[in-house]
Amino acid sequence: MFILGMMKTLMPVQKLNKLSWTTRNGDSFIRFVGVSELLIGLGLILPQLTGILPLLTPIAAGSLALIMILAIAEHFRHGETHDIPKNVIIMLLAIFVAAGRF
Q1: DSSP string across 39-90
Q2: Number of neighbours of residue 72 by Cβ within 10 angstroms
Q3: In 3D, which of 61, 55, 54 has the Cα closest to residue 40?
Q4: N or C: which end of the chain has fewer CB within 10 A?
Q5: Domain spans of the chain?
Q6: Cα–Cα distance for residue pair 76/87, rounded to 1 Å
Q7: pLDDT digits (tens, 9 = 90+) for 22-58
Protein backbone atom coordinates (compact mmCIF):
# COMPACT_ATOMS: atom_id res chain seq x y z
CA MET A 1 0.00 0.00 0.00
CA PHE A 2 2.72 2.43 1.01
CA ILE A 3 4.80 1.75 -2.13
CA LEU A 4 1.78 2.12 -4.42
CA GLY A 5 0.96 5.41 -2.70
CA MET A 6 4.53 6.63 -3.23
CA MET A 7 4.34 5.63 -6.88
CA LYS A 8 1.03 7.47 -7.45
CA THR A 9 2.27 10.52 -5.57
CA LEU A 10 5.76 10.93 -7.00
CA MET A 11 5.88 9.33 -10.47
CA PRO A 12 4.92 11.32 -13.55
CA VAL A 13 1.29 10.59 -14.42
CA GLN A 14 2.25 9.54 -17.95
CA LYS A 15 4.20 6.59 -16.48
CA LEU A 16 1.13 5.44 -14.57
CA ASN A 17 -0.87 4.70 -17.73
CA LYS A 18 -0.46 0.95 -17.14
CA LEU A 19 -3.08 1.41 -14.42
CA SER A 20 -6.34 1.63 -16.38
CA TRP A 21 -8.10 4.02 -14.00
CA THR A 22 -5.35 6.64 -14.37
CA THR A 23 -6.26 7.16 -18.01
CA ARG A 24 -9.82 8.09 -16.99
CA ASN A 25 -9.00 10.51 -14.19
CA GLY A 26 -7.16 13.79 -13.84
CA ASP A 27 -3.70 14.34 -12.42
CA SER A 28 -4.96 15.90 -9.19
CA PHE A 29 -7.25 12.95 -8.47
CA ILE A 30 -4.40 10.49 -9.06
CA ARG A 31 -2.19 12.48 -6.66
CA PHE A 32 -5.02 12.60 -4.10
CA VAL A 33 -5.36 8.81 -4.24
CA GLY A 34 -1.58 8.46 -3.88
CA VAL A 35 -1.40 10.72 -0.82
CA SER A 36 -4.41 8.95 0.70
CA GLU A 37 -2.74 5.57 0.25
CA LEU A 38 0.48 6.90 1.79
CA LEU A 39 -1.36 8.16 4.85
CA ILE A 40 -3.36 4.95 5.19
CA GLY A 41 -0.18 2.86 4.93
CA LEU A 42 1.46 4.93 7.65
CA GLY A 43 -1.72 4.83 9.73
CA LEU A 44 -1.84 1.04 9.58
CA ILE A 45 1.72 0.60 10.84
CA LEU A 46 2.99 3.52 12.91
CA PRO A 47 0.35 3.83 15.67
CA GLN A 48 0.63 0.19 16.70
CA LEU A 49 4.40 0.19 16.26
CA THR A 50 4.98 3.28 18.39
CA GLY A 51 2.06 2.92 20.79
CA ILE A 52 1.06 6.52 20.03
CA LEU A 53 -2.66 6.88 19.25
CA PRO A 54 -3.27 3.18 18.44
CA LEU A 55 -6.89 4.11 17.65
CA LEU A 56 -5.62 5.41 14.30
CA THR A 57 -4.87 1.86 13.08
CA PRO A 58 -8.51 0.70 12.85
CA ILE A 59 -9.50 4.07 11.40
CA ALA A 60 -6.86 3.66 8.69
CA ALA A 61 -8.03 0.08 8.06
CA GLY A 62 -11.63 1.27 7.74
CA SER A 63 -10.51 3.98 5.33
CA LEU A 64 -8.70 1.38 3.25
CA ALA A 65 -11.84 -0.77 3.17
CA LEU A 66 -13.84 2.24 1.96
CA ILE A 67 -11.30 2.96 -0.78
CA MET A 68 -11.49 -0.67 -1.90
CA ILE A 69 -15.30 -0.48 -2.07
CA LEU A 70 -14.97 2.60 -4.29
CA ALA A 71 -12.32 0.84 -6.40
CA ILE A 72 -14.62 -2.18 -6.85
CA ALA A 73 -17.41 0.13 -8.02
CA GLU A 74 -15.04 1.91 -10.43
CA HIS A 75 -13.77 -1.36 -11.92
CA PHE A 76 -17.29 -2.79 -12.17
CA ARG A 77 -18.59 0.34 -13.89
CA HIS A 78 -15.87 0.12 -16.54
CA GLY A 79 -16.11 -3.64 -17.08
CA GLU A 80 -12.73 -4.42 -15.50
CA THR A 81 -13.93 -7.47 -13.61
CA HIS A 82 -10.46 -9.04 -13.60
CA ASP A 83 -9.30 -6.36 -11.10
CA ILE A 84 -12.16 -6.85 -8.63
CA PRO A 85 -10.91 -9.98 -6.77
CA LYS A 86 -7.73 -8.30 -5.53
CA ASN A 87 -9.78 -5.34 -4.29
CA VAL A 88 -12.16 -7.71 -2.47
CA ILE A 89 -9.24 -9.50 -0.77
CA ILE A 90 -7.66 -6.22 0.36
CA MET A 91 -11.06 -4.98 1.56
CA LEU A 92 -11.67 -8.14 3.61
CA LEU A 93 -8.21 -7.95 5.16
CA ALA A 94 -8.76 -4.29 6.03
CA ILE A 95 -12.12 -5.08 7.63
CA PHE A 96 -10.44 -7.89 9.61
CA VAL A 97 -7.78 -5.47 10.91
CA ALA A 98 -10.34 -2.76 11.70
CA ALA A 99 -12.61 -5.17 13.59
CA GLY A 100 -9.69 -6.73 15.44
CA ARG A 101 -8.21 -3.39 16.55
CA PHE A 102 -11.49 -1.77 17.64
Answers
A1: HHHHHHHHHHHH-SSTTHHHHHHHHHHHHHHHHHHHHHHTT-GGGHHHHHHH
A2: 19
A3: 61
A4: C
A5: 2-101
A6: 11
A7: 888 888 988 998 999 899 999 999 998 999 999 999 9
